[in-house]
Amino acid sequence: METFRIKYYLAFMTVKKMKVNDVDYAILGILQEDCRTPLKEIARKIKIPKSTVYYRIRKLEEKKIIEGYYAKIDAAKLGKEYIAVILVKAKYGPGYHEKVGKKIAEIAGVWAVYFVLGDIDFIVMARANDREDYMRILNALMNMREIERTSTQIVIKVIKEDPRIELPKSHSIIIRSENSSFTAKM
Predict the structure, then answer these.
(1) Cβ atoms of residues 123 and 129 within 8 Å
(2) If you average pLDDT over residues 79-105, what whole number do you get?
(3) Average pLDDT, the chain
(4) For position 183, what pLDDT does the model report?
(5) How far apart are CA 149 and CA 142, in angstroms?
(6) Model confidence at 92, in pLDDT bands (50, 70, 90)?
(7) CB contact at 8 A, 104 and 162
(8) What CATH number should be reported for the domain whose range is 2-71?
(9) Residue 154 pairs with which residues in a beta bridge?
(10) CATH 3.30.70.920 region(s) of the chain?
(11) Which residue of 115, 124, 133, 164 has the smallest Cβ count within 10 Å?
């Protein structure tokens, strides 16, 4: 049974990839640094027409490689200093990962839910104002009949937290700034 379960989830997680070239990686690299960079500036930096930049960005959005544009907010400065990593074991059943995962994701304060293989089923990342706010999140989890048990780790210091992905290093393109040019490893 366990072997079938693992094979099923690995097959479920397979995603069709879009071919991305050096220009796309250069655009993605610039947008990851500052998603407000104007098309004209991107085009100037990588020496391609503005219309090509526009077309490439639209294709990347259509293929869901670019999923959205967000402001990077310092949660601690807004009082969300309490970070919890919650390991969740759920009751197994047909489609449970989707059902339970969606219910967990709806809890206020939860900012990431990962379905994982192994002894636990989900890793839940949550931010709270204080212990009382965290207990509200934990109680919401414990009151779900689909959840067997939880184990919580409290973060005492953030060493690194960066949502940007590392782009392949084999791709490079010359990016030109006003005073110099350099090859950006993408």
Answers:
(1) no
(2) 93
(3) 85
(4) 53
(5) 7
(6) confident
(7) no
(8) 1.10.10.10
(9) 84
(10) 75-155
(11) 164
Of 33, 16, 27, 13, the closest CA to residue 59 belongs to 27
> What's the pTM value of the predicted model, to 2 decimals?
0.72
Taking the C-alpha atoms of residue 164 and residue 33, their distance in angstroms, rounded to an integer, is: 8
Per-residue CA distances from 176 to 24, 31, 53, 164, 181 (Å)? 16, 15, 15, 22, 4
Class of residue 82 by CB neighbours under 10 A (exposed 0-12, middle 13-18, buried 19+): buried
**CATH 1.10.10.10 residue ranges for the chain:** 2-71
CA proximity to 87, closest of 136, 114, 51, 124: 124
Amino acid at 66: I
Kindly report the CATH class assigned to 75-155.
alpha beta
Residue 136 has pLDDT above 90, yes or no: yes
CA–CA separation, 173 and 87 (whole Å): 41
